[in-house]
Amino acid sequence: MKSLRIVSYNVRYFGHSTRGLASTRTSMRRIAEAIAALRPLPAIVCLQEVETRSIRSTVVHPGELTQLERFMEMLSKALERAGAPDVYDAYYFPAHAYRIAANTHAYTTGLAVLAHSDLAVDHHNAEMPHDITHRRLHAVRKIKQTRICAHVRFRHRDPRDGQRPIDIFNTHLSLPSALSKEFWTKPKRLGWGPNQLEEARNLAKFVERERGSDRFVVLGDFNALPGSPAYQYLVEEAGWGDAFAQRYRFSVADLASWPTAGFMRMRMHLDHLFSGRGLRWLNFDETRPFGDRESPFHGLSDHVPMVAACRLVRGDTIPPR
């Protein structure tokens, strides 16, 4: 495999213009067009904050299609208009549903992974995504939003590329719990929540159990700042490399000053790509800091996508640590 381009993007339910209250055709179409315009096209696209069907996702999109199915239709049309009629397979990983009746949801949450047709899928856990949620407080555990890790194992269909598999883990960690003492006593919060540290531990245990080799990527919206306990656990205890930091030799301070998300005037680095030693990161071309008006993704979400290219390290087998 010459190189592999991977995108990680929190799309805020395709409803940033409505502050996430309802998805809109315009947001969905513009995100589809922005992804279709990437060159080279990504082989894998991992999305966070994607719905199935709910009041929030269908208020301006009546019909039987799920949110991901509608987005895939728009992406297909955008690729055709861009002169690149490529095909992607989509996998949805449900996380949580807020029900107001037996068959009616106020809104739902989940993750998605899109795979280019050049890739074959050997394994995925879409039917039963792994629950990494930390539920410590019994009074609210029943309404705590479930957090999951999606896992897909890919290999290239062309035997000339060696068909070495790569494991992709897509996730979205909780925000720090406002019911914890640390939320009110620590000077910083994102990544300092005890619940976040426990979810980082749950995530690491799952990845270490499921990955087939050191050719793996763990990516998504971690809601954790560089240098926070949750972040440091993943790079120090789990031993995963921060691909963005390693490629550009960024310190923790450098990373913290390079925002991937924003809320009002706040700018935060919350989206990360961690990986094993079986991948060599080539570039993060077309990855722009949040607020960069030159980015085609500007104004489409409260996050920006991480767009990365990597190459698989030579060798038939890289055993797990």
Distance between the termini: 23 Å
* CATH fold-level topology: Deoxyribonuclease I, Chain A
Mean pLDDT: 87
Number of strands: 15
**Strand composition percent:** 25-35%
**Please, what is the CATH homologous superfamily?**
Endonuclease/exonuclease/phosphatase
Tell me the major beta sheet. 7 strands, mixed
Give the arrangement of secondary structure elements:
Layout: E1 4-10, H1 25-36, E2 44-48, H2 55-58, H3 67-81, E3 88-101, E4 104-116, E5 119-124, E6 130-131, E7 148-156, E8 166-172, H4 181-185, H5 194-210, E9 216-221, H6 229-237, E10 241-242, H7 243-248, H8 252-256, E11 261-263, E12 266-268, E13 271-275, E14 279-283, E15 306-312
Parallel strand pairs: 1-2, 8-9
Antiparallel strand pairs: 1-15, 2-4, 3-4, 5-7, 6-7, 7-8, 9-13, 10-13, 11-12, 14-15
Helix pairs in contact: 1-3, 5-6
Outline the structure in words.
By secondary structure, the chain is α+β, with helices and mostly antiparallel strands. The chain has a single domain (4-312), classed as Deoxyribonuclease I, Chain A (4-Layer Sandwich), CATH 3.60.10.10. The protein is 23% helix and 29% strand. The protein is built from 8 helices and 15 strands. The chain has helices at residues 25-36, 55-58, 67-81, 181-185, 194-210, 229-237, 243-248, 252-256; strands spanning 4-10, 44-48, 88-101, 104-116, 119-124, 130-131, 148-156, 166-172, 216-221, 241-242, 261-263, 266-268, 271-275, 279-283, 306-312. Strands 5, 6, 7, 8, 9, 10 and 13 form a 7-stranded mixed beta sheet that branches. It starts with a strand and ends in a 9-residue tail after the last strand.
